[in-house]
Specification:
By secondary structure, this protein is an all-beta fold. The protein folds into 2 domains: 34-319, Tachylectin-2, Chain A (5 Propeller), CATH 2.115.10; 335-531, Jelly Rolls. It has 1 helix and 44 strands. The strands form 9 sheets. The protein has an 8-stranded antiparallel β-sheet with strand order 7-31-34-43-36-37-38-39, with no helix packed on it. Strands 29, 32, 33, 35, 40, 41, 42 and 44 form an 8-stranded antiparallel β-sheet that branches. Strands 2-9-8-6-5 form a 5-stranded antiparallel β-sheet, with no helix packed on it. It is globular and about 75 Å long. Bound molecules: (Z)-L-Arabinonhydroximo-1,4-lactone (6LW).
Length: 532
């Protein structure tokens, strides 16, 4: 019996950002460039290749690694943290675990520096191939978050982190992970709350220190300062914030909360910024369910050497700007038959998985998930594997057979924002009957919104989403028409309601609800289609 592994190359998750070229050869692209829960992006360049990582919190494996040749089209090539020894998530609360990473390339080596807020704090890992394998973490005794790593021209190396009062710079010996000097507060930003997400760039004799400010919600922004000395004093850019939608220009935009940015220079000399933002369900409807996503904007350096982001510091869904030569990617297949021996990189577990609970080879053509006693309500390694909801308009479906031992066993699909906010479409046995249920879990409220007799232990489940509603369906047998079970508002799975730093994931799971686990759910198909 073989456990499910995450493939390096076999099943690549292709993110096909759409693009267009007009009659004059002017190219454009569509934001976000990496849709769905992908916050705190950090980017680096190695030759003509760009690599990017984002925060992954309580999900495992941790820190997706994306590759691109044009900054527009991204393909996931792996994860940084694939071993339990690299990423202990025991007891990780929702939105615990891994916060804001930085990804850098220096002298032929890739570095990821990050914070595990659940345990261990700051660390860095290295790799010569960003697809992995990555080293075990080197833990660094600095007690603050959002670390960046910076190499100065004299060879000194620094960690740049967020402290309560502002940004700190600390010399660190990368051979040992030890501090070689004190943590020094260098800049408090421009006065916005939560000065965080620091990144330092060396340009034209200056140290440029870019921050996120305003908190990661609607007041978010990117600001920048510069100094001739790494320890400051930092002079604030007169045009701050250089990126924000928390002003009249961003009012009514479908994109809100832009900030937490990183910059990269392409081989042709052009500068680009990646940053997080979120798509509200519609302009002026102030909630979002997809989490914070990764956006892209061009950067110029006119005005006395201060960066200007996409002209006026705002961005759109359609970006009518000249790009690098585009390298479109094939789209990921919408249908999965579970015939491969590994799941694609887009799939993640909740916390360190009990590996024996998952198999693709136990019964060829099926993903077997063995129920654990844990439920989706607990901050535990529940038997679950899921992928991001990447667009408001989507359809997801799964076919399932449940080998239930008792009425306590259940399995099905879930839309999960966190342990206390999820919608479950599940199969369970009640006496002699097989029932399909639609269960709502919102904070202290948990109830069965609808249930129907399923007819057998084999069902097809389907969820369709748009900006405001999720609709839930089931079909008793292959080929039978779907019956609608109910509709639920998207709003209650939003970050505004549920809180936290993640976005909605579409999961397959099995649970024995606190009783000894062991019953098996066999999934033989999964489909995920988006309407762009
Ligand atoms: C991250 C902080 C932030 O540490 O959210 O948007 C936190 N910015 O920089 C978690 O993603």
């Amino acid at each position: 019996m073989k456990s499910v592994k995450f493939s390096k190359a076999v099943i690549c998750f292709m993110i096909a950002a759409s693009f267009c070229v007009d009659a004059h050869g002017q190219s454009g692209y569509r934001n976000p460039v990496i849709p769905g829960f992908n916050p705190d992006p950090s980017v680096c360049r190695a030759g003509d290749d760009f690599y990017l990582t984002t925060s992954s919190f309580e999900y495992f494996p941790g820190l997706p690694i994306y590759h691109s040749r044009d900054l527009v089209n991204w393909e996931q090539i792996g994860h940084c943290l694939t071993r339990d020894s690299q990423l202990p998530l025991k007891g990780a609360r929702a939105s615990g675990g891994l916060f804001a990473p930085s990804l850098r390339y220096h002298d032929g080596v890739f570095y990821v520096v990050c914070t595990n807020v659940t345990g261990g704090g700051n660390f860095f890992c290295t790799a010569t191939d960003p697809a992995g394998p990555w080293s075990d973490p080197v833990w660094v005794d600095i007690n603050s978050i959002d670390p960046d790593i910076f190499w100065d021209e004299d060879g000194s190396t620094y960690f740049v982190t967020q402290g309560d009062e502002g940004i700190r710079v600390t010399p660190v010996d990368l051979a040992t992970g030890r501090k070689t000097g004190p943590e020094r507060l260098v800049w408090g930003g421009t006065g916005g709350r939560f000065p965080e997400a620091p990144h330092i760039y060396r340009k034209d004799g200056y140290y440029y220190l870019m921050l996120g400010e305003g908190g990661t919600e609607y007041m978010h922004s990117a600001t920048i300062g510069r100094s001739r000395y790494i320890y400051g004093p930092y002079e604030s850019c007169p045009f701050n914030p250089i990126l924000t939608h928390a002003n009249r220009r961003g009012q009514g935009s479908a994109i809100q909360g832009v900030g937490h940015a990183d910059m990269v220079q392409a081989a042709d000399g052009s500068w680009w910024m990646v940053f997080l933002g979120f798509r509200v369900t519609e302009p002026y409807a102030y909630y979002h369910v997809l989490g914070r996503e990764t956006f892209l904007a061009p950067v110029d350096w006119p005005k006395g050497g201060w960066p200007q982001v996409n002209g006026d510091g705002t961005v759109g869904l359609e970006m009518n700007v000249r790009t690098l030569p585009l390298h479109p990617l094939a789209k990921s297949p919408a249908d999965m038959e579970f015939n491969e021996d590994r799941l694609g990189f887009e799939w993640q577990y909740l916390r360190n998985p009990v590996r024996g609970n998952y198999s693709l080879t136990d019964r060829p053509g099926f993903l077997r998930i063995t129920a654990s006693a844990f439920t989706l309500d607990e901050a535990e390694p529940v038997s679950f594997v899921g992928r991001r909801q990447t667009e408001h308009d989507f359809a997801a479906a799964a076919s399932l057979e449940l080998d239930a031992r008792s009425g306590d066993d259940e399995a099905g699909m879930t839309l999960i924002q966190n342990n206390s906010h999820h919608y479950d479409l599940l199969l369970r046995k009640s006496g002699d009957q097989w029932m399909v249920q639609l269960r709502v879990r919102l904070g202290s409220l948990s109830y069965i919104a609808a249930e129907r007799v399923a007819g057998s232990s084999r069902v097809s489940l389907r969820i369709e989403g748009n900006a405001s509603r999720y609709a839930f369906y089931f079909a008793g047998r292959e080929g039978q028409p779907y019956t609608e079970l109910g509709r639920l508002d998207t709003r209650y799975l939003s970050t505004e309601v549920a809180g936290g730093f993640t976005g909605v994931m579409i999961g397959l799971y099995a649970s024995s609800n606190g009783k000894p686990g062991g019953s098996k759910a066999y999934y033989d198909r999964f489909e995920y289609r988006v309407n762009e």
